C-alpha cells in the first residue's frame, strides 16, 4: 500500500499523464516493485494503463483525485520530487526537454530551483517565438520575469532579466507593434540593464529602440538613436552596424526634412552594404537593408526633383524585391 501511494504521488508530481520509463527514473524502484505498485493503482481504478512496461503510459482517471493525492505531500518531499523529475527529464528525455522546455521550467520552479526555472522559461519562450506562437511566448517569458524576484540581487539576475526582456520585446513587437508603449518600456529597461551590468549596448536594444521612436514619429529621438548606432559601429569598426546606423539616420533625416543629409547617409549605407552579412540584418528586421535604403533614396531623389533617377532606383529595387520574393518591399 505504501508503494502504491508513493507511485501515485510521484505520478502527480510528473503530471496527470506519465510514462513508465520516466516514473522508473524518478523513483529508482526495481522493475518488480514498481510494476506491483502500478498494478495496484490500476486495480484500484485510480489510473488507466496503456501498453506494457517498459513502453507503458499511465493516466489518472480524474484530475480531482490527482490533486488530492498531490496535496498530501509535505513541502519538502514535494520539492524533492519535482527536482528529481526535472533531473530525470534532462538526463533521460532530451527530446521532450528540447520540445517542451516549459515542462522542465515548471518542475524546477516547484522544486525551488529558481535560476534553472528562469533559464527554462526563457528557452520555452524562445521556442514559442520560433513557432510564431507569440501569445504563448509572452505568457512563458512573463513567468520567468515574475520569478526573478526570488533570486539574489546582482549581475547574474540582471543578465537573466535582460535576456527575458529582449525576448519579450520581440514577442510584443509581433503582437502589438513596435510603437506600443510597453515595447518602449522594455527597450528602456533593457538599456538600463546594459548600463547596470556594464555591458555595451547590444544592437537589438539600440535598433528596437530606434524603430519604436521612429514609428511613433519621435524623430529627434530616432535620429539620436541612429547616430548612436553609427558611432558604436565606427568605434568597433563594425561595418554592418555602421551601415545600419547610416540607413536609419537617413530615414530619420528624410522625415525631418533634411533631404541632403538623407541622400548622403543612404549613399554611404549602400556603399557599405555586404550581401554576405544579410543574416546580421534579418536577425533584427525581416526587411532587406539594401532594398529599404534604395527605396528611401528614391523617395528623397523625387523630393529633390530628380524624378528620372528616382524612377530608375525605384524600378531597380522593386525588380530585385520581386526576384527575391520579398512581399514587404513590393508592398511599399
Task: Describe what you observe in this structure.
This protein has 3 domains: 1-73, Arc Repressor Mutant, subunit A (Orthogonal Bundle); 75-199, Alpha Horseshoe (Serine Threonine Protein Phosphatase 5, Tetratricopeptide repeat); 231-332, Serine Threonine Protein Phosphatase 5, Tetratricopeptide repeat (Alpha Horseshoe). With 332 residues, the chain is mostly helical. The chain has a 3-stranded antiparallel beta sheet with strand order 1-3-2. The N and C termini lie far apart (71 Å). It has 19 helices and 3 strands.
CATH architecture of the largest domain: Alpha Horseshoe
* SSE pattern, N- to C-terminal: HEHHEEHHHHHHHHHHHHHHHH
Number of helices: 19
- Give the total of beta strands: 3
What fraction of the residues are assigned to beta strands by DSSP? Answer: under 5%
Tell me about the biggest sheet?
Answer: 3 strands, antiparallel
Give me the CATH fold name of the largest domain.
Serine Threonine Protein Phosphatase 5, Tetratricopeptide repeat
Poorly predicted runs of 5 or more residues: 1-9, 326-332
Give helix % range: over 70%
Query: What is the total domain count?
Result: 3
Structural class: mainly alpha
Widest sheet: strand order?
A: 1-3-2
Given the C-alpha coordinates, what overall shape results? Answer: elongated
Radius of gyration: 27 Å
CATH class call of the largest domain: Mainly Alpha
* End-to-end separation: 71 Å
Arithmetic mean of pLDDT: 81
Amino acid at each position: 500500500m505504501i508503494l502504491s501511494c508513493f507511485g501515485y504521488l510521484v505520478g502527480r508530481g510528473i503530471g496527470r499523464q506519465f510514462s513508465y520509463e520516466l516514473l522508473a527514473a524518478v523513483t529508482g524502484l526495481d522493475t518488480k516493485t514498481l510494476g506491483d505498485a502500478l498494478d495496484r493503482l490500476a486495480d484500484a481504478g485510480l489510473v488507466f494503463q496503456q501498453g506494457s512496461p517498459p513502453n507503458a503510459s499511465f493516466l489518472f482517471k480524474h484530475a480531482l483525485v490527482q490533486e488530492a493525492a498531490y496535496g498530501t505531500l509535505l513541502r519538502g518531499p514535494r520539492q524533492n520530487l519535482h527536482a528529481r523529475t526535472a533531473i530525470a527529464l534532462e538526463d533521460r528525455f532530451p527530446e521532450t526537454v528540447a520540445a517542451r522546455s516549459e515542462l522542465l521550467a515548471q518542475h524546477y520552479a516547484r522544486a525551488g530551483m529558481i535560476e534553472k526555472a528562469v533559464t527554462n522559461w526563457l528557452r520555452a519562450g524562445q521556442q514559442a517565438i520560433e513557432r510564431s506562437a507569440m501569445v504563448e511566448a509572452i505568457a512563458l517569458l512573463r513567468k520567468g520575469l515574475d520569478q526573478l524576484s526570488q533570486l539574489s540581487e546582482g549581475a547574474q539576475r540582471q543578465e537573466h532579466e535582460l535576456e527575458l526582456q529582449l525576448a519579450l520585446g520581440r514577442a510584443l513587437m509581433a503582437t502589438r507593434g513596435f510603437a506600443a508603449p510597453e515595447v518602449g518600456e522594455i527597450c528602456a529597461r533593457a538599456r538600463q540593464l546594459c548600463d547596470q551590468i556594464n555591458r555595451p549596448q547590444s544592437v537589438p536594444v539600440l535598433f528596437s529602440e530606434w524603430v519604436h521612436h521612429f514609428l511613433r514619429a519621435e524623430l529627434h529621438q530616432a535620429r539620436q538613436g541612429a547616430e548612436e548606432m553609427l558611432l558604436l559601429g565606427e568605434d568597433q569598426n563594425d561595418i554592418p552596424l555602421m551601415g545600419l546606423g547610416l540607413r536609419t539616420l537617413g530615414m530619420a533625416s528624410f522625415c525631418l526634412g533634411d533631404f541632403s543629409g538623407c541622400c548622403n547617409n543612404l549613399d554611404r549605407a549602400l556603399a557599405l552594404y555586404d550581401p554576405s552579412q544579410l543574416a546580421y540584418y534579418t536577425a533584427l528586421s525581416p526587411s532587406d537593408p539594401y532594398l529599404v535604403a534604395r527605396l528611401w533614396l528614391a523617395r528623397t531623389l523625387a523630393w529633390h526633383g530628380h524624378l528620372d533617377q528616382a524612377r530608375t532606383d525605384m524600378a531597380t529595387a522593386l525588380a530585385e524585391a520581386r526576384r527575391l520574393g520579398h512581399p514587404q518591399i513590393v508592398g511599399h
